[in-house]
């Protein structure tokens, strides 16, 4: 099944150019099927780039997925046209009375900012509390994972001395967990963060199932036992050149960043980077949609309640 997104969204032409099945709104409305309703809270400055990356991963599923875009930072931005935001993005007030099968909260360039100094921290708290009663499963990515751990487990912000940047090997744990279904014993995934997620710290202070870890990058994937909250500390959605663009940006700003680990051939930024994480990125999102969302969500979202959840496998 395809992903359903607005016909004029820039991602539509990009994804169709990649031979990804994107269904028009008119055709989708004629099908006798209940699509999964997924809300994407996009906190990244370059919203068009980020929404395209996540929509690409959501498209790799046999389920029809209807995605709505959400924003909470209403300040003018130089990275995304105002017309685009006004046309394609919802305000929280427009969706707060509805229920959704899934919610994705993206990363944000706030690694060195204390939570209480984030301008929209109260709005983040409001949405995460709202999700407890209105969303079947929430996927927290990178900075959002740290924010989710703070709000759900009251874990303080843990910041590394140096930025973690590169593509790292990870080991899977609990291979029978459905979120890991089809994963190799070891796999690659990109990271770009200052946050620190050690397996020992999460094991001691939470009841999360720790599903994938790296000796260098710490915890990559963890989830609550009911799969209603899934935490991804890296960036499986990144394009091949995203880390490169971040690196060259930081070099241009005189920050003297370290070369992203295991990213450029021969560790030479003059060489074109190689994408080595696409397959497991697609698999992770497909598993989340199937086992955390589709198998758990009520058919009638108007009847959403805790009692609707099952241990579907």
TrEMBL record:
Cytoplasm is among the record's keywords: yes
Catalytic residues identified in the record: 142 (acyl-thioester intermediate), 235 (proton acceptor), 237
Keywords from the named record: Acyltransferase, Amino-acid biosynthesis, Cytoplasm, Methionine biosynthesis, Transferase
Entry keyword annotation includes Acyltransferase: yes
Main EC class the enzyme belongs to: transferase
InterPro entries: Class_I_gatase-like (IPR029062), HST_MetA (IPR005697), MetA_family (IPR033752)
EC number, UniProt record: 2.3.1.46
Pathway(s) it belongs to: Amino-acid biosynthesis; L-methionine biosynthesis via de novo pathway; O-succinyl-L-homoserine from L-homoserine: step 1/1
Site (Important for substrate specificity): 192
Localization: Cytoplasm
Recorded catalytic activity of this chain's protein: L-homoserine + succinyl-CoA = O-succinyl-L-homoserine + CoA
Superkingdom of this protein's organism: Bacteria
GO molecular function: homoserine O-succinyltransferase activity
Annotated site residues (Important for acyl-CoA specificity) in this chain: 111
Annotated transmembrane regions: none
Residues the entry annotates as binding substrate: 163, 192, 249
Stated family: Belongs to the MetA family.
Function: Transfers a succinyl group from succinyl-CoA to L-homoserine, forming succinyl-L-homoserine.
Descriptive protein name: Homoserine O-succinyltransferase
């Amino acid at each position: 099944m395809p992903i359903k997104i607005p016909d004029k969204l820039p991602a539509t032409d990009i994804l169709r150019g990649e031979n990804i099945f994107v269904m028009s709104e008119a055709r989708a409305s004629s099908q006798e099927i209940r699509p999964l309703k997924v809300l994407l809270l996009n906190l990244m400055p370059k919203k068009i780039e980020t929404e395209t990356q996540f929509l690409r991963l959501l498209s790799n599923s046999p389920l029809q997925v209807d995605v709505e875009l959400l924003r909470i930072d209403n300040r003018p931005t130089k990275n995304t046209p105002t017309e685009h935001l006004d046309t394609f993005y919802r305000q929280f007030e427009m969706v707060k009375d509805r229920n959704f099968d899934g919610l994705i909260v993206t990363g944000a360039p706030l690694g060195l900012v204390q939570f209480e100094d984030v301008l929209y921290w109260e709005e983040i708290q409001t949405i995460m509390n709202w999700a407890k009663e209105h969303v079947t499963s929430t996927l927290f990515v990178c900075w959002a994972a740290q924010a989710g751990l703070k709000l759900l487990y009251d874990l303080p912000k843990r910041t590394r001395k140096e930025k973690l940047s590169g593509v790292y090997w990870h080991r899977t744990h609990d291979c029978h967990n459905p979120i890991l279904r089809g994963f190799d014993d070891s796999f690659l995934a990109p990271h770009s963060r200052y946050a620190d997620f050690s397996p020992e710290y999460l094991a001691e202070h939470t009841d999360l199932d720790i599903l994938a870890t790296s000796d260098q990058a710490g915890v990559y994937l963890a989830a609550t036992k009911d799969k209603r909250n899934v935490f991804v500390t890296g960036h499986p959605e990144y394009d091949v050149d995203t880390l490169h663009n971040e690196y060259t940006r930081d070099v241009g700003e005189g920050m003297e960043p370290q070369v992203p680990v295991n990213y450029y051939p021969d560790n030479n930024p003059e060489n074109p980077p190689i994408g080595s994480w696409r397959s497991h990125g697609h698999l992770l999102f497909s598993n989340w949609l199937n086992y955390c969302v589709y198998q758990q969500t009520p058919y009638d979202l108007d009847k959403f309640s805790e009692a609707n959840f099952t241990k579907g496998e």
